[in-house]
User: Fold this.
Amino acid sequence: MANVKSKALKQLISDLQSGDADVTQKALEKVPTKGTYEVIPPLLEVIDNHLSDVLVDKAKTILNDLKSSDARTPLSQGLSHKNHLVREACLSAFWNSSLNSPEYLDLFVKAAIEGTYMEAVEAFTVIENLDGPFQEEQVNDSLLLLKNYFHENPSDDKIELIRSIATVVNRIGQ
Assistant:
């Protein structure tokens, strides 16, 4: 039985990565019932490849409905993707799926600092709603990232938003 499931999962992943809009659409319809956290990277590829707005929206909807804590690792890996739409989708998924992930505090801060304004908004929402426990190292790394950002970007367009993030991180560190 496990072999059949494994084969079906491999086929689902292959279909998501096919590059064919019709095949991808059919695979996206199967993901909620047949997928596991292993389909997250291919879902991120669907967003990155942007075959159509409909497929991207469907992939984002699936990501936002994740409930398994196993999703946290592949989503955190997506935060370093080259495409800002993928990074935004990962941040949004953390928030919308209520995936409490205090171990990634520094990654959320980094995403806010290095990303677009929208990524900073999404990261702020995630950070503001994190529940501990927080690792002292993550908090200190986050504070250092913020300190460097303020030193290097005194007039950035998202400075006020990053200040709000710094306030939250300072509160976490107390």
In short: The chain has ten helices and no strands.
